[in-house]
Design goal:
Length: about 200
Amino acid sequence: MPGIYRCGCEMWYGMELNEVSAMTAAKWLLRAVFAIVAIVAIIWVIGMMLPRDHMASRMAHYQVPPQKVWEALTDIDAMPSWRIGLKSVTRLPDKNGLPVHSENTSAGKMTFETTLMDPPRRLVRGMASDLPFGGTWTFDVAPAPDGSTLRITENGYVSNPFFRFVSRYFIGYTSEMNKYLTGLAQHFGETPQIGD
C-alpha cells in the first residue's frame, strides 16, 4: 500500500521516498542554475556600463642609472629571468625595423610589437594578439638623484563586458604593472619602491 511522506510543507501521495528525494534535489539544482544565470547576467550588465577603454599608470624608483633600466627593458630574451609570471619569450620577425615578440605567460600566449624606441628614455609596446583585451604600454625612464625612475602607462581596452567587470573589480588595472616593476627591482637586487 502506498505510503504518505512529508517533504517540507507538501504531502506526497503514492510516491516512494527516493522519488521525493530526487524531486527535491532537482528543485534545488534548478534554483542553483537560475541563481548562477542571474549572477552572470548582473555581471554582464554592470560590465556593459563600464567604459571599454581605461588608462592606468605606476612608477618605481631604482638605484641604478637609466641606461641599466633601459637595457633590462629592451633585452627581450632575458625577460623570463626576472619577469614574474613570464615563462618564455619567442622572437618574431621585426616590424618596421622594431622588435616583435611572443610571451608565454600563466594567462596564455600574447604577441607584442614595439612601436617606439627612444633610448634610454621611452619605449612603447602594443599588443598584436586577437584577444578580448589589449592596448599599449609606454615605459618612461628618467634620471633621479640616486638612480632612475620607470613609469609604465597602460592605455588599454577590454571589449568583453564579463572580462571588463573582472578586470575592474577583481584583477585591477595595475596588477600586471606592479608585477613588472617588482620583478625589475628584484632583478637589480633591490626592494620594490612602487607608487603612483
